[in-house]
Amino acid sequence: MDPHFHILLVGDDNANLLVLQQVLDRSCEAEFAFTAQDAVFKLAAKHYDLVISDYTLPDLPLAEFMSSLRRISKPRVLPVIVMSDNDDPDAEEQSFRLGAQDYISKNSRFGVIEYRVMRVLEAEQNRAAMERRYQDQEQKIEKIRQNIVEAFASIIEGRDQLTGLHIQRTASYVSMVVDGLLKKGYYVEELQDEAKRNAIVQSAPLHDIGKIAVSDVILLKPGRLTKDEFEIMKRHARIGGMMIQETLKSIESPLILKTAVDMATYHHEKWNGQGYPDGLKGEQIPLCARVMAIADVFDALVSKRCYKEAFSYEKSFEIIREESGQHFDPLIAEVFLSMKDEIIGMSEGWALGSDEELCALD
Ligand SMILES: [Fe+2]
């Protein structure tokens, strides 16, 4: 057995604790806690691999002690063996019901006690090793995911003549708006979960990935698109959603996958139903796409394109105000406008003026 196991022996039966300590001495370092409170204090201060507790404790019922252990050791589940000096089947059943890994009679032979303690510790060791392997795998998958997102983002930058700044700025606006909505108490149900907020921010750089499928003639056209060209350009939304679905389905969580697909597919929908590809209206449009829409349009307004000069911040915020309830969700527009100074500060922080010219209007 691993000699580095640390065991906490809990109870006020001093003679039994001393015997136990001697039995386990060869393989474990065992310490005492003579009350449940003392045990809780020690467990909060130090890592133990196992708790062996008397069924009857001097200061707390076993149920309360076990629930304190669960709280302290969270998220880990600390293994517990309960010992009793009477062979009460109710106590045994109760111990297992409370989550004990084993129940041992104090009348058992020392060899049996040692064997059963060892079995619980080995199971714990195997569980910890599996958890470490699982975490390693998770980290590798996360790295692959990040690499794919970065590769996608750089492909879009290359195709669309966008600098990385455009993608970084829109992702930053998205992040600020999401935080702003939550602070205002808007869409709390959708945004209170941190994982959902992160999914929106992480997915933002992929929203225009579908532009990969649009020909250079249209994508890089130095001027406004004709009606037919615009129809082709519009396809980038649905194609982007499909690309993300196909490429990331095996490595992304369902939450991130759905968010990224929704953002790419619906970021050109409008609140009034006049957008594309599906002409969704109001809250039919996924929230993540409604947030992306305002970030994307604002950045286009304040950026220089080959067919227009950059609009001033004043003018750009005025357009956002006019489009509230038309292009944009009014609550999101309200939050965006209320964050004017922060948005400008962030935008200037990204050195807006150094962007290359953006040509095609999408
Ligand atoms: Fe787009």
Name a few traits of the molecule.
362 residues; alpha/beta; Rossmann fold; Hypothetical protein af1432; 2 domains; 15 helices; 5 strands; disordered C terminus; binds fe (ii) ion
Descriptive report:
There is one protein chain. The chain has 362 residues and is α/β, with parallel strands linked by helices. It folds into two domains: 5-133, Rossmann fold; 161-354, Orthogonal Bundle (Hypothetical protein af1432). The chain has 15 helices and five strands. The chain has helices spanning 14-24, 36-45, 62-73, 89-97, 110-160, 164-184, 188-191, 194-203, 216-219, 227-248, 254-266, 287-302, 313-322, 330-338, 340-349; strands spanning 5-10, 28-33, 50-54, 80-84, 102-105. The protein has a five-stranded parallel sheet with strand order 2-1-3-4-5, with helices on both faces. Helix 4 (89-97) links the parallel strand 4 and strand 5. It starts with a strand and ends in a 13-residue tail after the last helix. Mean pLDDT is 88; it is low at 352-362. Bound molecules: fe (ii) ion.
Protein topology:
Elements (H helix, E strand, L loop, with lengths): L4 E6 L3 H11 L3 E6 L2 H10 L4 E5 L7 H12 L6 E5 L4 H9 L4 E4 L4 H51 L3 H21 L3 H4 L2 H10 L12 H4 L7 H22 L5 H13 L20 H16 L10 H10 L7 H9 L1 H10 L13
Parallel strand pairs: 1-2, 1-3, 3-4, 4-5
CATH architecture of the largest domain: Orthogonal Bundle
Compute the CA-based radius of gyration. 30 Å
H-E order: EHEHEHEHEHHHHHHHHHHH
Hetero groups in this structure are: fe (ii) ion
Shape: elongated
Oligomer: single chain
Helix-residue proportion: 55-70%
Number of helices: 15
Q: Strand fraction band?
A: 5-15%
Number of strands: 5
Query: CATH first level of the largest domain: which class?
Result: Mainly Alpha
Report strand order across the widest sheet: 2-1-3-4-5
Helix/strand class: alpha/beta
How does the major sheet shape up?
A: 5 strands, parallel
